[in-house]
Specification:
This protein is mainly α. The chain contains six helices and three strands, in the order βαααααββα. The chain is elongated.
Length: 102
């Protein structure tokens, strides 16, 4: 295999949920359609001011698909909000399940 070849690490199914966060796309225009007037304009501008670029928005999905850490840290069934950041709810659920099993 060449230096840029992919290898299969495991044939075990692995499931993750990822959320890109607020991403600045044309979808933000829907706020003004849904809430005409000042509320829609403020909501749109707020989301655009705190949002991420589309490139930044794809990091969680790319991390989940390509990072060895996902398997090493056993993120199977977890919800990632940012690359390598597990949501607090998932941590609590994981500890509860581990405690119930132990």
């Amino acid at each position: 295999m060449g230096p840029h070849s992919l290898s299969i690490v495991s044939l075990t199914p692995f499931s993750l949920s990822v959320h890109p966060g607020v991403v600045n796309t044309d979808m933000q225009d829907q706020w003004e359609d849904a809430y005409p007037g000042i509320l829609g304009m403020l909501t749109r501008n707020l989301s655009l001011s705190v949002g991420r670029s589309p490139e930044q928005g794809c990091y969680s999905a790319l991390y989940s698909a390509l990072s060895d850490e996902v398997v090493e840290k056993d993120y199977n069934g977890f919800y990632l909000t940012d690359p390598a950041r597990v949501s607090m709810r998932e941590r609590i659920n994981a500890y509860a399940v581990a405690g119930a099993a132990g």
